[in-house]
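Contributing new records

If you add data, match the layout below exactly. Sequence lines come first and carry their own label; structure lines follow with theirs. Keep one chain per record. Anything else will be rejected by the validation script.
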Amino acid sequence: MAGESVKGLALELPKSLNARLNAHHTQTKMSFVLTVMTAVEVAYPRLQELIDKKLGRHDEPARVSLFAKPTRQRISRDEETERRTIRMSAGGLEVLDGLVEEFAAPSRTFLVIVALDTYLPAQD
């Protein structure tokens, strides 16, 4: 929307994924923010499955919740990361925040990593 505020979205991306993002940008000239939004939209139908797999979550039988437990879990990194900041509209950030809640992802960054990893072609 015209006049909508733009904010920085700081992402800590695994180095190999950042390299794939850079290669995609070089090849397509697509902006980084458009690539992120497209990746999330393409992955959306499978995001729950992809996030659960990445977190090692397994189907658990329904149970009564007696305690207030954190819905997000901390994740460990298997690879060194690189910081990338992209500019995204406040509305876009709200969409990401809604998806983080919907799929119980640990963070915006985690959700974006899962989407980009699915969307971007693997490098040889």
